[in-house]
Design a protein that fits this description.
The chain has two domains: 138 residues, no CATH class; 76 residues, ACT domain (Alpha-Beta Plaits), CATH 3.30.70. By secondary structure, the protein is α+β, with helices and mostly antiparallel strands. α2 packs antiparallel against α3, α3 packs parallel to α5 and α5 packs antiparallel against α6. The chain is built from eight helices and four strands; from the N terminus they run ααααααβαββαβ.
């Protein structure tokens, strides 16, 4: 025990205040860029602006935590015990959102370890890849809508019925997400319409099928 106490005591170092402040500022600036990239280039169906608002705080907190625990072995061991009682109940349904969350966390980890140049270079490279991918896929996204249909669950084959209604009216239809509970359902599609008239026909057909259904079309700037 005396040996262990000695190791823990010797492992404690002092955090340089100005270096820590610079890292926090860099974490906020870099994560703000990550948030902007997620809002501009993201393709997830959730509210991207609301989700992106958490990235800055996440990166700053991660920087703070890593800076503190690297200065003391005792604090790092205590953090393991503290995190063991934390439970995260919110499910992340979009893989893209999870990817950006990891990028924000990695930013905090790198700056907390005082690896500023490597962190900035890695994030810039990651955002460059995302931007190139967005540019390559831009043409396809002009004619593809995010179609979200939700309503009360009647206990019947809702997804099959909706697909049967939409398929004759769409040149392309892909189911990418299905949320089905006892009381509600939500279907998310990538749908491509040849014209605005076909979109209107699809909306009318869905209204005829159910008057209470909620219909949302996103990114519809590519319709002729």
């Amino acid at each position: 025990m005396d040996t262990l106490r000695g190791i823990i005591a010797d492992s404690t170092t002092t955090v340089e205040l100005w270096g820590f402040i610079i890292n926090l500022i860099l974490a906020a600036v870099i994560s703000f860029g990550i948030s902007a990239a997620y809002v501009w280039w993201g393709t997830s169906f959730s509210n991207r602006s609301k989700a992106a608002g958490n990235f800055v705080l996440l990166a700053v907190i991660t920087t703070f935590v890593i800076t503190i625990i690297k200065s003391s072995l005792a604090l790092s061991l205590g953090l393991v015990g503290a995190l063991s009682i934390v439970r995260f109940r919110t499910a992340i349904k979009e893989p893209e959102e999870l990817t950006f969350l990891f990028l924000a966390i990695a930013t905090g980890l790198g700056l907390g370890a005082n690896q500023r140049v490597i962190t900035i270079a890695a994030v810039a490279f990651a955002l460059l890849i995302i931007g190139i991918r967005r540019a390559v896929m831009k043409h396809d996204r002009r004619t593809t809508l995010h179609l979200i249909i939700s309503g009360q669950n009647s206990g019947e084959a809702t997804a099959e019925e909706v697909v049967g209604i939409l398929k004759p009216l769409c040149s392309k239809l892909e189911l990418v997400r299905l949320d089905d509970t006892r009381t509600e359902f939500e279907l998310s599609f990538l749908a491509e319409f040849r014209s605005f008239r076909m979109l209107t026909a699809a909306r009318s057909a869905l209204r005829t099928w159910s008057k209470d259904v909620e219909i949302r079309f996103l990114d519809d700037e590519g319709l002729d």
